[in-house]
Design brief:
There is one protein chain. Strand 3 and strand 4 form a beta hairpin. The protein is an alpha/beta fold. The chain is globular.
Length: 334
């Protein structure tokens, strides 16, 4: 079974909502043809997309062609809208979460859903996480790597992580509003350099800020193989060693990094080997970033190309780990 943990979806009609709000940063969808559109922000093209991003039937056709049994649906990070008034961001989150839940309910053997929450207001975010978990029956929440420049170890987020652990809500952390983006206007460096760096900062903040130590049962998966974090852990451990006056932890950062899950979107088998060596096959979850241009085609390609994996390891990475992470029983057939 192949479960693609990292895919994005958006309701086709969400623009009807965001055009009612004030502020040019609200994303909108402008159709360019029968099967394509642009996501617009502040009058500029943020991302070109196809109908794969809103049409579940088209996704299912692609899944059949690429031997994917289940997709895990999550919002597109630009719709997090942490910059906006929390009440308006909550309305957009609810629209997206309802759409994802409806899509899962229409095709329960094909899709699993993750929701979004307005994390700029923790009380409102917890309220929507409660609705996602206990009313919509979504399987987890996707959040960004920072909230308006505030790292995830900020004390204001503690109650959110506490509730996520208490309710056993898995969290998928995806980069957005990357650090240093003002230095990356050319070459699409925001996607290739900015996002991995941003994810490393988020993961390091959660570790060094004591969040992972405080909430050992909290389930978190980091996008894009954890970005640069796995390769920076030796340097983080060295900092832990030489700056004892800064320590907030009982053990070095690499110890707590083993609590994370990591998607397999690392492009090269040598990188996947590195993840396996450091975290074990039980913590690696296949994800492709469907349907965007940088995605892995077909999903699981890097796993297929990685030598010396046992049948059990392959089965876990390609599907079983994702279902276990999301507390979802194995789904069979269509």
């Amino acid at each position: 079974m192949r479960v693609d943990f990292h895919t994005h979806i958006i309701p086709e009609n969400f623009t009807e909502l965001t055009k009612r709000f004030n502020g040019e940063k609200w994303p909108t969808l402008e159709r360019t043809c029968a099967c394509g559109a642009n996501i617009m922000v502040a009058g500029k093209v943020f991302r070109e997309v196809t109908d794969q991003v809103w049409c579940p039937e088209k996704r299912i056709k692609d899944m059949e062609q690429e031997s994917v049994d289940i997709q895990v649906l999550s919002p597109i990070p630009v719709t997090f809208s942490y910059w906006a008034p929390a009440g308006e961001a909550e309305v957009l989150a609810r629209v997206q979460n309802d759409f994802i839940a409806e899509t899962v309910n229409m095709f329960p053997t094909k899709f699993i859903g993750l929701g979004a929450v307005p994390l700029q207001n923790v009380e409102v975010a917890i309220r929507e996480m409660d609705r996602c978990k206990h009313e919509l029956r979504l399987s987890g929440i996707e959040i960004g790597t920072n909230v308006n420049g505030v790292n995830l170890d900020d004390p204001s987020f503690i109650e959110f992580f506490q509730c996520a652990e208490q309710w056993d809500v898995p969290l998928f952390i995806h980069p957005w509003e990357t650090l240093g983006k003002e230095r990356m206007p050319r070459h699409n460096l925001m996607y290739t350099v900015g996002m991995p760096s941003e994810t490393a900062l988020a993961g390091a903040s959660l570790i060094l800020g004591g969040v992972m130590e405080k909430f050992p049962k909290l389930k978190i998966c980091l996008a894009h193989g954890g970005g640069a974090l796995p390769y920076l852990l030796p340097r983080l451990d060295q900092g832990f060693k030489v700056w004892p006056h800064l320590r907030l932890l009982d053990k070095p950062p690499s110890h707590y990094a083993k609590q994370f899950y990591y998607d397999s979107l690392v492009n090269e088998p040598v990188n996947l080997h590195y993840l396996l060596q450091n975290f074990g096959h039980e913590k690696i979850i296949m994800g492709s970033d469907y349907p965007f241009l940088l995605r892995e085609v077909p999903p699981g390609k890097v796993v297929d190309e990685t030598s010396e994996l046992t049948k059990e390891q392959i089965e876990c990475i390609l599907g079983k780990n994702a279902l276990r992470f999301l507390n979802v029983p194995v789904k069979v057939g269509s």
